[in-house]
Amino acid sequence: MTRIEKSGYVFSVDVEKTQEYYKNISLCECDYCQYLHQHIRERFPKLTAFLSEFGVDITKPDEASPIELDGEYQYTFVGYTVCGEILKSGEYEIDLCDGLFLSISVDDKFSFPNQQNGKYFSLSVFGIALPNESAKSISEKPHPNSLRSKVKNLFKKH
Fold this sequence. Notes:
Largest sheet: 8 strands, antiparallel
Radius of gyration: 17 Å
Mean pLDDT: 83
Structural class: alpha+beta
């Protein structure tokens, strides 16, 4: 177990177990999640480093809640699971400036859909927005296993 201290919080994290969890989870196939997967690491290097300390793969959230607004994909939150426990809670969320102001909520009472056994807690990131100028390329080239691709292939003329 690794001890991590951030903004008044103290965590005991099983980094290796968390990394293994992220190697084995599958990605959501919707356009928004695929776009997030492709662009979040390059857009948010400080958040990537922050989450990596916990063993989290930033490109594979457990849950994301996107909306399209003002030429952006705005994610009302992006949630991750960490294997371990919160030893001491801070008074507020963890704030991080990474081009945008990001707020990270820590919670051991809320869980995203996951297959974790044992102790775990969630990190929910608020404030993520990605310009969707190139998002059209996702719509033009849908993921081969997406529902959209399967329906298009079903009705394709042979």
